[in-house]
Amino acid sequence: MNILETLGKLASESGFAGFLAAGGWKNLIMIAISCVLLYLGIVKKFEPLLLVGIAFGCLLTNLPGAGMYHLDMWDAYVAGTPYTTEAGEVIEHLTFTTVLHEGGLLDIFYIGVKVGLYPSLIFLGVGAMTDFGPLLAYPKSLLLGAAAQLGVFVAFFGAIMLGFTGPEAASIGIIGGADGPTALLLTAMLAPQLLGPIAISAYSYMALIPMIQPPIMKFMTTPAMRQVKMEQRREVSKTEKIIFPIVVAGFVILLLPSTAPLIGCLMFGNLLRECGVTDRLSDTAQNAMMNIVTIFLATSVGATMVAERFLSFNTIKIIILGLVAFAISTAGGLIGGRIMYRTSGGKINPLIGSAGVSAVPMAARVSQDVGRKYNKTNYLLMHAMGPNVAGVIGSAIAAGFLLSVFGG
Amino acid sequence: MTGISETLQHPSIGTGALVAVLGYAVVFLGICMLLVVVTIMGKVMVNSQKKAAAKAAAVPAAPAPAPVSAPAAKGTAGELKLYDTDPRDAALIMAIVAHKLGKPINELRFRSIREVKEK
Questions:
Q1: B42 with A401: Cβ contact below 8 A
Q2: Hey, are the CB atoms on A191 and B13 less than 8 Å from each other?
Q3: Cβ within 8 Å, pair A146-B10
Q4: A170 and A295 share a domain?
Q5: Which of residues 77-96 of A touch B (CB under 8 A)?
Q6: Is the pLDDT of residue B69 over 70?
Q7: Which runs of E-coded beta strand occur in A258-377?
Q8: Separation CA A325–CA A319 (nearest Å)
């Protein structure tokens, strides 16, 4: 046995040698990016539950030789072209079974994203956590949830202008819905090659909502508007809360069948919460299941941040368009709020409009904080929760529309 | 993405604008329809609650049942009279006596407990 030859072989096959291979420096950059994301998640606490997993998935996928995620395999799967395995075997038609045999661990996790399983399960958990009471007490706040989808379609149009394809533009636009699972579901269906940058953009801006929204809120409202104290709304009965998810699921899915996975799971989760006889299931959906799915979702989304795909000018364009989408969605909600302020004779505080972007409950908290800055006795939180949960429904409808147009 | 026309795969600026406007309109339309449904549902609920409340108010309140003294538990030995004694102390005394005698407390009969004051 030639020791030197063996050591040389070990060195050439190690991951370290991969950094010295052609394009290996890109992996180093991606590892540095994953460390920055870990820093933002752990130290700055920017959406840590997701960002830490995404960053670690990114780290794993960019370690040369680890083979945990195979970008070329998924490209072949999407394109329907033959795939050549590392052993040289050519597979004519890739299926999920092939992925289970030939893929790495993160490829297997990614199947859940690809089939839309994780975002739907996250919606189930979100439904179990959401109290639709404020929305039922003041149904007109649904309109603010619709108004705040403006950024989705402006960013979509912007992406078309910047040369993205229709499905890619739709996936970029949905960042403006400020709803992570919806953005991931739509992107996995329409433009999986953009999943990494879109996830990073969506979750980063959601974490930055307390910084992005207040300047826009101040710019678009007058001090007198910000001081408006809103009346207490009626009590919502238990029966009404039980009927609501059943009615909404039936109605919205019949209207836009492509929203079925999201709205169906959201409303099922809510029914588990409200019906009063499934407390154990509601608890599992809110906690254990949500945590498990978050781990799978975050790591598999992070895995898609492969150097050769992520380090491109398109990523920068997506980051910029994402910010535009968030800002315009906030502005759209505030325009809706101002209209309601006028039509109600000054009884509605327009600041609740910005909560129409569906980042629950962060956006509602921002409305509360900005409102209290101008009137210490003002409590807008519960009033803002109405538009906030309406935003979840609004963004699901927007995603359903884009899916039915570009989903083929 | 396969299965969609070239017009949608690579839309012109005009098509993009049309899709954007149409999409925003569809979101509003869907939400408006949902608003109508939720509002009707809320009204029905409020009315049924009002009706139920009115029904309950219309029924004359039943006369309060006459106070019935609870039957004495088996073995309870009537009422106990306390003289200058705190009920808590009396309970303690009865428990201690029952313990010392080795009998259940409800099989003993206490007529009165009086504090003996030293002069």
A1: no
A2: no
A3: no
A4: yes
A5: 80
A6: no
A7: none
A8: 10
